[in-house]
Backbone:
């Protein structure tokens, strides 16, 4: 057997008392596409940042082609042939594509950057690998799919032999995903090695050669993809059998509770961010808003919860027009909102749980009377919600920053659902949340629907949209391209719409 | 126009711009690497004091200038390491530095020279001026530059050099990247801390020069809190220029012009308490008028 | 809190020790005896005979501490205390001279001064809301402007022409704040009442909760329905009102007229801001820090008299405390 391209032996990493990597062994052959799977918090990210030199392991060795490598920084890892595409892209939005790619390794003439040479090299690299990009475009203006190509080019420009792709498909349409897979296969065929970090089973089954599964900071399984099944992998990941189907009855839509008409939000550079969006969400239904991130969903949501004032159009919540109102006005009209960015928008990490649970309720009894708070009522309310939603925290006086991602999300969900508002906007409600918490939150959304509330679910995960929605909207470049009942929707058709292709075009 | 703007007025305007311009260039560099530097006021005060001390003991303006640069760099170690290695909040650190500079210079003034308020001594020599008689004949701009110190000339050359550095060289590209997306720079092996520390320290040399120009350029005296808000005006110039050295220089020129007009009005009998506020009013007006363009750039409050 | 953390001295104490050591070195270098200098500070601040002086100095300083702490609690910084204080001071000096003032002249003057300071500070918040001018900058620029205009008014239209100095006419005796003990006047009670009010609002009122949440995460507060613009106006108004009140208390309690520059020389604004930063805007801690700084500065006068060490040393000590805490403990790390 040939010497493995990359070998990690007995990697241990501790953060204080927490063991993030517990004697992890990983072996990857040259030219292989190797999946590293695990739930959030299983230790994937820690392992990858150690392999890329961003932090040193406490114990263990890394061998590259049989030779021990010690990475003091990312620079050492890059020099040794490692390349990494992070899940959250590490790009400079105000710089051009070529500037992003040559950054840190610029060709120069005397003291100045050799702009001509840099652009030529970038264009040549892009052509050779079939990754079409305009070297002079500002990265901030590019779509997510193109930005990912820039990230891959960055690694290839530095002659990466081993490419780590961290959740690369989370932001792509199914068609873009297929394009990425083609690139991955080509790179592997050239003899490059790809570490594919993901939690999506079907993708692992589709493209990888072997799988290493992590759970609770340990390696729990190593398998050849062709000899395993999705069920076996998921059992390894979760330690139990998980039923991915959500039990739910048929929807019984009633009166429209959330009505959006001709909603438009302009942008500084002309093309509107939201372009005449119009739809309704009725009592007793979940409407899914699908779309690739960055097509105006965030701005649309901001406008309909009152964080941003639309340039034109109308928003009605439970029949009341709230177009000119601020967040307080929207909430008063009957809106609850689970935001995508729970740490920066949905919570104050420096405040305790009781304070976090009180937000939005502080002006009403029982939490306050004529402007004065009742701390006992605040604590009691927090305790009740912690119990009811199973938020794992020491007490209601523990800081929100001490909660794990999943528990923080449960806290936000608990608080927003306790409004018992007729309209619920849930934005990426399960991103970065483990499977157990995801099941719980999905169940709560369905329960909300069954109570006769209107739920708008905004998600970049098509599987989540398909599993929960009664009706599906697709947003592309600020416009609502389609409004289809769940029964008539397929992943492929939605994927095409997400890429902007309507029927007949 | 030329009746209103006399050669003397233009000369004093250009002279008044120099410290603000140098400080704002330093502010631009710090802002580009992501350090919000509002300690320019304190840095400048330290520079002005050190210049007078150096000059007093060595009887040489050059030594004074050198002392200003060295002292300001040493003082700026607080910001350079405080905002990076020690992870302090740059706003709090800068406010602390401004007060430290004010207290320390006042303390040392009493301890070293046994005076309070202002210090002036015959042994202090001012920075000599470069005379370019040929410029005298060009109205307005020529008048302004006909008799200025090397620091003033250097400041305007630096505007161009810093623009070239930022936008045409590898170091400039990395500087801009470190400020915009530090973690992206880190993943490409560009050490954010090192870039920040070096940039803060190097730029503080410019503020030291600004201080020297203040205490040894126009006059040869040190007065407590003699910077009188110039460092803050430089902060505003950085903001108005949106981090571009050339635009920031233009903003500085606007303030200098306002200053000169104030001086002129004072000559015509307006009390100086009112003309002194001209730069602040102009600054506020400029900020209000430019708000649409700045709206897209997030500024910490 | 872990056992180790409990055993460690509180960070503020460590910072004070560091400042004392560095300041002592500075005294030593300038040829004086640091032990004597510090002894003079302690004696000058805390000896029974000197305590009223300390309290008298603490009144405006704690007032300006509260003025700085309110916006800071919400993650905002008001650098314009000087301007708001002189506006209040001038209004406080003029109001009792008006014929309408009558027997309630002092009360009326304090109210008018608070309103003037409050509205002037709210101007900075309005600039941020309407024109996106960062409040940090605009509050300071407006302060320079106010100081210039007030200085002009005191030197020209409002000058007491019977003296050669830039100052307004003496306020009538009836409008002066009654003396309590030595230099201490009723202004101390007013500031104490304001301090108590600020603490209660911070701990128990809905607006206190909302401001605190804004300070921890402004986006979260906005998301929860807090009206951020209105809140910024309110916090700045309250801050400026206290600054204006301080100006009027100094005028009506001790100087009995507005003297150009007299309100600014002691640098109450900056000491108050530092005290507020020390406690991250939390009012009880800020008041404690303000009292500490007041004692330090009062003691500084005694030190200057007895050991010829300039009293401005105390400003250096304060700055070192702030810088040390900012670095070691991420003091003032604001989320917004």
Residues:
């Amino acid at each position: 057997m040939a010497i493995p391209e990359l070998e990690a032996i007995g990697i241990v990493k501790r953060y204080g008392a927490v063991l993030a990597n517990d004697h992890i062994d990983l072996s990857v052959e040259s030219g292989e596409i190797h999946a590293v799977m695990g739930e959030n918090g299983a230790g994937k990210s820690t392992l990858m940042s150690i392999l890329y030199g961003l932090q040193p392991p406490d114990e263990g060795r890394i061998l590259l082609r049989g030779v021990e490598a010690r990475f003091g920084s990312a620079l050492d890892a890059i020099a040794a042939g490692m390349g990494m595409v992070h899940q959250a892209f590490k790009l400079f939005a105000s710089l051009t594509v070529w500037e992003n790619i040559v950054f840190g390794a610029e060709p120069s003439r005397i003291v100045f950057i050799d702009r001509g040479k840099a652009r030529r090299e970038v264009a040549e690299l892009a052509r050779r690998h079939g990754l079409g990009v305009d070297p002079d475009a500002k990265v901030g203006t590019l779509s997510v799919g193109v930005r990912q190509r820039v990230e891959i080019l960055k690694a290839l420009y530095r002659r990466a032999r081993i490419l780590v792709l961290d959740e690369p498909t989370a932001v792509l349409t199914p068609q873009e995903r297929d394009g990425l897979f083609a690139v991955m296969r080509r790179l592997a065929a050239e003899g490059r090695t790809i570490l594919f970090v993901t939690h999506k089973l079907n993708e692992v089954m589709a493209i990888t050669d072997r799988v290493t599964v992590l759970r609770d900071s340990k390696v729990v399984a190593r398998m050849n993809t062709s000899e395993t099944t999705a069920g076996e992998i998921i059992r390894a990941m979760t330690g139990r059998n998980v039923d991915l189907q959500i039990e739910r009855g048929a929807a019984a839509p009633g009166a429209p509770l959330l009505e959006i008409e001709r909603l438009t939000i302009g942008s500084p550079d002309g093309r509107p961010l939201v372009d005449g969006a119009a739809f309704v969400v009725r009592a007793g239904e979940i409407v899914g808003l699908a779309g690739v991130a960055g097509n105006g969903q965030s701005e649309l949501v901001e406008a309909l919860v009152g964080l941003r004032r639309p340039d034109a159009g109308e928003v009605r919540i439970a029949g009341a027009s709230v177009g000119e109102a601020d967040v307080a006005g929207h909430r008063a009209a009957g809106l609850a909102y689970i935001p995508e960015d729970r740490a920066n928008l949905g919570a104050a990490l420096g405040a305790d749980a009781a304070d976090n649970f009180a937000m939005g309720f502080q002006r009403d009894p029982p939490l306050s009377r004529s402007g004065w708070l009742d701390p006992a009522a605040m604590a009691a309310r927090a305790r009740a919600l912690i119990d009811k939603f199973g938020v794992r925290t020491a007490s209601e006086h523990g800081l929100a920053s001490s909660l794990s991602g999943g528990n923080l999300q449960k806290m936000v969900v608990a608080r927003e659902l306790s409004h018992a508002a007729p309209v619920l906007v849930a934005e990426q409600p399960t991103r970065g949340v483990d499977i157990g918490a995801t099941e719980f939150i999905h169940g709560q959304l369905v329960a909300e629907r069954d109570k006769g509330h209107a739920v708008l679910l905004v998600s970049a995960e098509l599987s989540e949209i398909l599993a929960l929605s009664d009706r599906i909207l697709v947003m592309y470049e600020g416009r609502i391209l389609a409004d289809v009942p769940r029964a008539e929707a397929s992943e492929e058709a939605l994927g095409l719409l997400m890429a902007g292709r309507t029927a007949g075009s | 126009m030329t009746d209103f703007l006399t050669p003397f007025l233009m000369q004093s305007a250009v002279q008044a711009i120099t410290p603000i311009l140098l400080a704002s260039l330093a502010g631009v560099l710090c802002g580009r690497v992501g350090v919000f530097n509002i300690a320019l006021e304190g840095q400048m005060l330290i520079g002005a004091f050190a210049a007078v001390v150096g000059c007093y003991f060595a009887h040489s303006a050059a030594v004074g200038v050198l002392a200003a640069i060295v002292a300001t760099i040493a003082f700026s170690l607080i910001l350079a390491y405080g905002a990076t290695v020690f992870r302090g909040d740059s706003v709090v650190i800068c406010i602390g530095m401004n007060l430290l500079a004010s207290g320390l210079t006042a303390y040392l003034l009493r301890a070293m020279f046994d005076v309070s308020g202002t210090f002036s001594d015959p042994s202090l020599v001012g920075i000599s001026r470069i005379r370019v008689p040929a410029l005298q004949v060009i109205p307005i701009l020529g008048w302004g530059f006909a008799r200025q110190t090397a620091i003033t000339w250097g400041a305007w050359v630096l505007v161009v050099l810093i623009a070239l550095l930022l936008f045409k060289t590898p170091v400039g590209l990395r500087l801009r990247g470190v400020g915009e997306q530090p973690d992206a720079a880190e993943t490409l092996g560009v050490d954010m801390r090192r870039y920040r520390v070096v940039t803060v320290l190097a730029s503080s040399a410019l503020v030291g020069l600004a201080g020297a120009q203040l205490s040894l350029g126009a006059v040869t005296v040190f007065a407590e809190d003699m910077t009188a808000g110039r460092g803050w005006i430089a902060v505003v110039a950085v903001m108005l220029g949106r981090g571009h050295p050339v635009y920031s220089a233009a903003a500085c020129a606007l303030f200098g012009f306002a200053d000169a007009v104030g001086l002129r009005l004072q000559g015509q009998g307006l009390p100086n308490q009112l003309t002194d506020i001209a730069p602040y009013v102009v600054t506020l007006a400029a900020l209000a008028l430019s708000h649409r363009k700045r709206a897209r750039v997030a500024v910490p409050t | 809190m872990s056992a180790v953390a409990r055993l460690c001295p509180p960070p503020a104490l460590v910072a004070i020790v560091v400042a004392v050591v560095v300041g002592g070195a500075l005294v030593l270098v300038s040829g004086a005896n640091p032990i004597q200098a510090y002894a003079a500070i302690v004696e000058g601040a805390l000896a029974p005979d000197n305590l009223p002086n300390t309290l008298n100095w603490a009144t405006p300083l704690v007032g300006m501490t509260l003025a700085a702490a309110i916006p800071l609690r919400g993650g905002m910084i008001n650098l314009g205390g000087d301007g708001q204080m002189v506006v209040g001071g001038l209004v406080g000096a003029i109001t009792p001279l008006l014929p309408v003032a009558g027997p309630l002249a002092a009360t009326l003057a304090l109210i008018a001064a608070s309103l003037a300071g409050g509205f002037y500070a709210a101007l900075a918040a309005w600039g941020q809301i309407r024109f996106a001018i960062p409040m940090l900058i605009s509050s300071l620029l407006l302060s320079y402007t106010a100081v210039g205009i007030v200085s002009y008014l005191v030197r020209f239209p409002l000058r007491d022409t019977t003296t050669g100095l830039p100052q307004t006419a003496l306020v009538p005796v009836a409008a002066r704040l009654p003396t309590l003990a030595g230099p201490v006047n009723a202004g101390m009670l007013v500031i104490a009442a304001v301090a108590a009010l600020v603490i209660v609002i911070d701990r128990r009122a809905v607006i206190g909760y909302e401001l605190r949440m804004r300070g921890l995460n402004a986006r979260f507060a906005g998301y929860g329905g807090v009206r951020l613009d209105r809140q910024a106006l309110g916090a700045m108004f309250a801050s400026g009102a206290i600054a204006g009140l301080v100006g009027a208390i100094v005028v009506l309690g001790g100087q009995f007229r507005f003297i150009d520059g007299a309100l600014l020389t002691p640098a109450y604004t900056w000491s108050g801001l530092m005290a507020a930063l020390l406690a991250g805007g939390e009012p009880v801690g800020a008041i404690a820090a303000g009292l500490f700084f007041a004692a330090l500065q009062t003691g500084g006068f005694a030190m200057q008299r007895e050991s010829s060490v300039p009293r401005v040393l105390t400003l250096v000590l304060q700055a070192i405390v702030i810088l040390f805490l900012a670095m070691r403990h991420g003091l003032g790390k604001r989320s917004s």
About this structure: Chain B touches chain C through 48 residues (CB under 8 Å). The first strand of chain B starts at residue 118 and ends at 119. The radius of gyration of chain B is 19 Å. Strands of chain B lie at 118-119, 129-131, 147-149, 222-223.
